[in-house]
Amino acid sequence: MTALNVVTVTIAAQGSPVDPVPPEGNFIFSPNGEMWPGTAGSLPVVPDIQHGFLVNGTASVQLVASDNFAVNVLNWDVIINIRGLPTVNVSGVPVNYATGATQSVWDILSAFGWTPIAQV
Fold first, then answer.
1. Residue 43 in this model has a pLDDT that exceeds 80
2. Model pLDDT, residue 84
3. b/e 57-78 (16+ beta carbons within 10 angstroms → b)
4. Taking the mean position of all CA atoms in its chain, how far away is CA 37?
5. Confidence of residue 39 (pLDDT cuts 50, 70, 90)
6. Quick check: helix, strand or coil at residue 62?
7. What is the maximum alpha-carbon separation in the chain?
8. How far apart are the C-alpha atoms of 41 and 53, rounded to whole Å?
9. What does the alpha-carbon distance between residue 79 and residue 112 come to, in Å, rounded to a whole number?
10. Which residue stretches of the chain are H helix?
């Protein structure tokens, strides 16, 4: 089996200067896409669902890179909950190793066209 590129995705949230508690939250990265890199004897791509918690406002997770395969074979659904902010829920996000072995989730989402929801 060929080794696959993996991207370390970092999540970071900065606390308010008036809030003594660091940001709290959780995340889920769920595989999305065709999940089948080819038809001639190929096996499906089935990476694990990654989930966890922010500790002191940060977390990191390793994801199989989307650019190991053709476009739309493997993308990721991203859900991030951070106390006090609207839930981030974005489907079909490519996480490409060509952009770097370690990347911020906010940069990945922005490159995909996501913009933060303004709080009123």
1. no
2. 83
3. bebebebbbbbbbeeebbbbbb
4. 20
5. low
6. strand
7. 59
8. 38
9. 14
10. 105-111
Which tokens sit at 107? 């940069």
Q: What tokens does 39 get?
A: 């038809």
Residue whose tokens read 């089935």: 46
* % of the chain residues with pLDDT over 70: 92
pTM given for the model: 0.89
Task: For residue 35, name the pLDDT band (cuts at 50, 70, 90).
Answer: confident
Quote the pLDDT of residue 85.
87
Asked if 98 and 111 count as a contact pair (C-beta separation under 8 A), the reply is: no
CATH number of 6-111: 2.60.40
Of 96, 104, 21, the residue nearest 59 (C-alpha): 104
Any idea what DSSP says for residue 39?
S
Place of tokens 């004897």: 41
Q: Estimate to the nearest angstrom the gap between the alpha carbon of 38 and the chain centroid.
A: 24
Helix-strand-coil split of the chain, %, nearest 5: 10, 35, 50
